[in-house]
Amino acid sequence: MKKIFRLSLQRDFNSVFKKGLGVSLTGLTIKYLENDKKIFRLAVIIGKKVAKKATSRNLLRRRLKEILKKHSSQLVGWDLILIAKPELAKNNFTELTELLEKALKRTRIFQ
């Protein structure tokens, strides 16, 4: 994913956490906030409690980003923060896809 699609500044994180809305499912929490840009920005937070090995955390991060790439046209104008919980590491790619799409449908983004 290109650098312009990353949510990286501390002030952006703070605004999403303070002003944004959230949806929580088993294994995944999504915080989101509308932005005034013509792109969507994304951050994926996966702590060591989710997976001890960095390779496992990176694999999970890459999978989540790939799933969101498919829905990028619907996500334009939003800042998203995905927060993984330990239950998420057990899922395979298809289960992750179903879970993430279910969570996105519960947000205001897909309505």
Layout of secondary structure:
Blueprint: H1 10-19, E1 21-25, E2 28-34, E3 41-45, H2 54-70, E4 78-84, H3 93-106
Parallel strand pairs: 3-4
Antiparallel strand pairs: 1-2, 2-4
Describe this structure as you would to a colleague.
- This protein is α+β, with helices and mostly antiparallel strands.
- The two termini are 25 Å apart.
- The protein is globular.
- The chain has a four-stranded mixed sheet with strand order 1-2-4-3, sandwiched between helices.
- A hairpin with a 2-residue loop joins strand 1 (21-25) and strand 2 (28-34).
- It has helices at 10-19, 54-70, 93-106; strands spanning 21-25, 28-34, 41-45, 78-84.
- The protein is built from three helices and four strands; from the N terminus they run αβββαβα.
- The model has no long low-confidence stretch (mean pLDDT 91).
